[in-house]
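Lab notebook: predicted structure, single chain.

Context: the supervisor wants predicted structures on file for every construct in the current expression panel, including those that have not yet been purified. This is the next one on the list. No modifications to the sequence; it matches the entry in the shared construct table.
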Amino acid sequence: MVHKILNKTTTVLFILTASFFLVQCGDSPDNTSEVYDDNTNTEMQAEGEFEEERDELVSDLEDLQEDLDQRIEDLNSRIEEDGDQADESLIATRNEVQNNRTELEQTLQEVENTSEENWASVRSESRDFYDRVSSQLEEWANRIDDEVDN
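Prediction complete. Output recorded below exactly as produced.
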């Protein structure tokens, strides 16, 4: 008789323990939707930040493009004014600016068409290019001023 009581008690405890674990292991629908909403919001924020950073870089590159276009226009005017007497270094500077302008167009396209997955590398390369060409603009301006003064 004691054996029957222990057997029934053990079975009941086993069933209660098993049901307790099943209830605890399952996610309620409310918790699942909150986690999904949080993940969705985080993804939307990250995408918004990516687009904002990309738009800012595109704007910086477009400004640089305008500066290069203006520099090319200035160089062409000076070369045209000098005619056959145009200094070789002035022509070389114009060609260098034009080459950077062409590279800028490619960089700008790459930034505009990039995805979030490869954004970090594209951003880094594009910023390096922007910094390099921006500093060269000053060098070119000094070189042009030196040529005009001579």
